[in-house]
C-alpha cells in the first residue's frame, strides 16, 4: 500500500480564514436581520484525535471517515507519523475533506521531536505513545503551550517506570526516553487541572504490559464527558475500561482492534452558530446531530433553553430558535446561574452570549479553563470589559452584568474559542475587530466562510 504524506501541498490548516483577514484584523459581521440558516460542520476534534491515536496503536489498518482536517488534527497526524505510523488520504463522501487510512507501525520508533502546537490532545495523549516507542522523543509546542499544565502526564509516566527528562516545572518541553515497552500497573495522579491527563494514559493503557489501574486523587475532576468519550472509543475497539468507583479506571492489557469509524461533526464548534440564533434572532439548524454521543457540545440542547431559546430536534437536525424579544427592547436572552465544570469547553461562547443577555449571569465550576489555550477567565473579562462590559472574575468563573457594549479591538490570544466569542459579540455590536481570526484553524479552518454563509 502506498503511504502518502498527509500534508500535501493543497492542505492549508488555516483554510478559508485567510481570505477575510486583513492587517487590521477581521471585522466581525453585524447581523442585520433574523437568521434562517442550516449549517453543516466538520468532524469533532476530540473524537478525531482519539481515533488517530487508537488507529496508530491498533492491530491493523483503520479508516477514519469524515475526520477533522485542522491544525490540531494535523499536529496529531505529524506526531504519530514521526513515530512511524503510516497515513494515506483516500477519497470520502464527507464535505470537508478526504477520509484517512491509518496503518500502524510494525514497531514505533522515537529519536524525534514532536511539535504539540497549542493542542492539549497532542501534548497530553502523545507522551504515553512515545513511551511505547524505541528511542527518545522530545515534546515542545507554541510559546503558550509551555504554560499549560503537564504534571499529570509527566508524573504519571514516571510513576509507571518511564524515563523522562523534564524542566521540573511540570510543563513542556521534555523528553520521553522510550524503550518500546511500558510496565504499567497501579498509578495515582491529580487530574484537577485537566481530564486529558486521564484520557492520555487510558488511550495507551491496553499496550502497557500490566495494563493500568489509574486513580485520580485531586479535589475535582473537570470535563468528565471527555473521559467518557475516551472510554467509549476504547470500547468500540474491544477494550473494556472498568470503573470500580468514581475517579478510578482499570484497563487490562490486550489488543486495540482496527476498525473503520465515522466521525461525528464537532458539536462544540456548533456553539457559536447556535448561539448566533439567540443574538441575531430567527433560527439556526445544525445537520448531522448524532442521536447519542459523548460530545459535551450535545449539552447545548439543554443549556441554550436556560438562556431563553427553544430547541427542536427532527431526526439528525437540531434547531435553535431565538427567544421572543423583551417588551422593553432587549433581545429576550435570559441570565443564567450555571455550573459548567463538565462543559468548560463551551464556556467562552456561552459567556459571550451572557454578555448580551438582559439579566445578570454567574458561570462557575470553570477554574480549569485558566489552563486552556489561554487563561480564558482573564481573557474573557478583559476583552468584554474593553468593549464596555461589566464582567468580574471569580476564582472559578465569571459574573456578567448587562451593559451596553461598543465596538473596538477583540484579542483572541491564539485561542479559537476566544476568536469565535468575538464573532458572537460582533453580531450585535458594530466594529468589533478580532485580531487573529485565523486561530479558528485550530479546530475549524472553515469558520469565517461558514459564518459569512450563516449571515448571507
Ligand atoms: O480530551 C479532550 O478532547 C478535551 C478535554 C477537555 O480538556 P480539559 O479537561 O483540560 O478541560 C476539553 O476542554 C478540551 O477541549 C478537549
Ligand atoms: C481546551 C480546548 O482545547 P485543547 O484540546 O487544546 O485542550 C478547547 O478546544 O476548548
In short:
The protein is an alpha/beta fold and 456 residues long. It has helices spanning 17-20, 45-57, 71-82, 120-131, 151-159, 196-204, 224-236, 271-280, 300-306, 347-354, 376-386, 416-428, 447-455, and strands spanning 26-27, 35-39, 62-65, 86-90, 99-103, 112-115, 134-140, 163-166, 174-179, 185-189, 212-216, 241-242, 248-251, 261-262, 282-287, 310-314, 317-321, 337-339, 361-364, 390-394, 397-401, 408-410, 432-434.
Overview of the structural elements:
The active site is at residue 345. InterPro entries: Enolpyruvate_Tfrase_dom (IPR001986), Enolpyruvate_Tfrase_sf (IPR036968), EPSP_synthase (IPR006264), EPSP_synthase_CS (IPR023193), RNA3'P_cycl/enolpyr_Trfase_a/b (IPR013792). The radius of gyration is 22 Å and the shape is globular. It has helices at residues 17-20, 45-57, 71-82, 120-131, 151-159, 196-204, 224-236, 271-280, 300-306, 347-354, 376-386, 416-428, 447-455; strands at residues 26-27, 35-39, 62-65, 86-90, 99-103, 112-115, 134-140, 163-166, 174-179, 185-189, 212-216, 241-242, 248-251, 261-262, 282-287, 310-314, 317-321, 337-339, 361-364, 390-394, 397-401, 408-410, 432-434. The longest helix is centred in the first third of the chain and has 13 residues, at 45-57. Residues 1-20 have low confidence and may be disordered. With 456 residues, the chain is α/β, with parallel strands linked by helices. It has two domains: 17-41 and 265-455, UDP-n-acetylglucosamine1-carboxyvinyl-transferase, Chain (Alpha-beta prism), CATH 3.65.10; 45-262, Alpha-beta prism (UDP-n-acetylglucosamine1-carboxyvinyl-transferase, Chain), CATH 3.65.10. The strands form six sheets. Strands 2-15-17-16 form a four-stranded mixed sheet, covered by helices on one side. A four-stranded mixed sheet has the order 4-5-3-14, with helices on one face. Strands 6-7-9-8 form a four-stranded mixed sheet, covered by helices on one side. The protein contains 13 helices and 23 strands. The structure holds shikimate-3-phosphate and phosphoenolpyruvate (PEP). The site of shikimate-3-phosphate has 13 residues, from helix 4 and helix 6.
Amino acid at each position: 500500500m502506498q503511504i502518502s504524506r498527509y500534508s500535501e501541498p493543497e492542505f492549508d490548516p488555516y483554510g478559508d480564514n485567510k481570505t477575510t483577514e486583513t492587517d487590521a484584523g477581521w471585522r466581525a459581521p453585524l447581523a442585520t436581520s433574523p437568521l434562517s440558516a442550516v449549517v453543516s460542520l466538520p468532524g469533532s476534534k476530540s473524537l478525531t484525535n482519539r481515533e488517530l491515536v487508537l488507529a496508530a496503536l491498533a492491530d491493523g489498518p483503520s479508516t477514519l471517515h469524515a475526520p477533522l482536517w485542522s491544525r490540531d488534527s494535523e499536529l496529531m497526524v505529524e506526531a504519530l507519523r514521526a513515530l512511524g505510523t503510516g497515513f494515506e488520504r483516500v477519497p470520502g463522501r464527507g464535505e470537508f475533506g478526504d477520509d484517512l487510512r491509518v496503518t500502524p507501525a510494525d514497531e514505533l520508533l522515537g529519536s524525534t521531536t514532536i511539535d504539540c502546537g497549542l493542542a492539549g490532545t497532542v501534548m497530553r495523549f502523545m507522551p504515553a505513545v512515545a513511551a511505547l516507542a524505541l528511542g527518545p522523543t522530545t515534546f515542545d509546542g507554541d510559546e503558550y503551550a509551555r504554560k499549560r499544565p503537564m504534571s499529570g502526564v509527566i508524573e504519571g509516566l514516571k510513576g509507571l517506570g518511564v524515563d523522562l527528562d523534564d524542566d521540573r516545572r511540570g510543563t513542556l518541553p521534555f523528553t520521553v526516553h522510550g524503550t518500546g515497552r511500558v510496565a504499567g500497573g497501579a498509578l495515582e495522579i491529580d487530574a484537577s487541572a485537566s481530564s486529558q491527563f486521564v484520557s492520555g494514559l487510558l488511550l495507551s493503557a491496553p499496550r502497557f504490559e500490566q495494563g493500568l489501574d489509574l486513580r485520580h486523587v485531586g479535589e475535582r475532576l473537570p470535563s468528565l464527558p471527555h473521559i467518557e468519550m475516551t472510554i467509549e472509543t476504547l470500547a468500540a475497539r474491544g477494550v473494556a475500561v472498568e470503573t470500580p468507583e468514581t475517579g478510578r479506571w482499570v484497563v487490562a492489557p490486550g489488543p486495540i482492534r482496527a476498525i473503520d469509524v465515522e466521525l461525528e461533526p464537532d458539536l462544540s464548534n456548533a456553539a457559536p452558530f447556535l448561539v448566533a440564533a439567540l443574538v441575531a434572532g430567527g433560527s439556526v439548524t445544525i445537520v448531522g446531530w448524532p442521536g447519542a454521543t459523548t460530545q459535551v457540545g450535545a449539552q447545548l440542547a439543554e443549556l441554550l433553553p436556560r438562556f431563553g431559546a427553544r430547541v427542536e430536534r427532527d431526526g439528525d437536525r437540531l434547531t435553535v430558535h431565538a427567544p421572543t424579544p423583551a417588551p422593553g427592547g432587549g433581545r429576550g436572552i435570559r441570565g443564567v446561574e450555571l455550573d459548567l465544570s463538565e462543559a468548560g469547553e463551551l464556556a467562552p461562547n456561552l459567556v459571550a452570549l451572557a454578555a448580551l443577555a438582559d439579566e445578570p449571569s454567574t458561570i462557575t465550576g470553570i477554574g480549569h479553563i485558566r489552563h486552556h489555550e489561554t487563561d480564558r477567565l482573564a481573557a474573557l473579562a478583559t476583552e468584554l470589559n474593553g468593549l464596555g462590559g461589566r464582567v468580574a472574575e471569580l476564582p472559578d468563573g465569571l459574573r456578567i452584568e448587562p451593559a451596553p457594549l461598543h465596538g473596538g479591538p477583540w484579542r483572541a490570544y491564539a485561542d479559537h474559542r476566544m476568536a469565535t466569542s468575538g464573532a458572537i459579540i460582533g453580531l450585535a455590536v458594530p466594529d468589533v475587530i478580532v485580531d487573529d481570526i485565523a486561530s479558528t484553524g485550530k479546530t475549524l479552518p472553515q469558520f469565517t466562510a461558514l459564518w459569512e454563509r450563516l449571515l448571507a
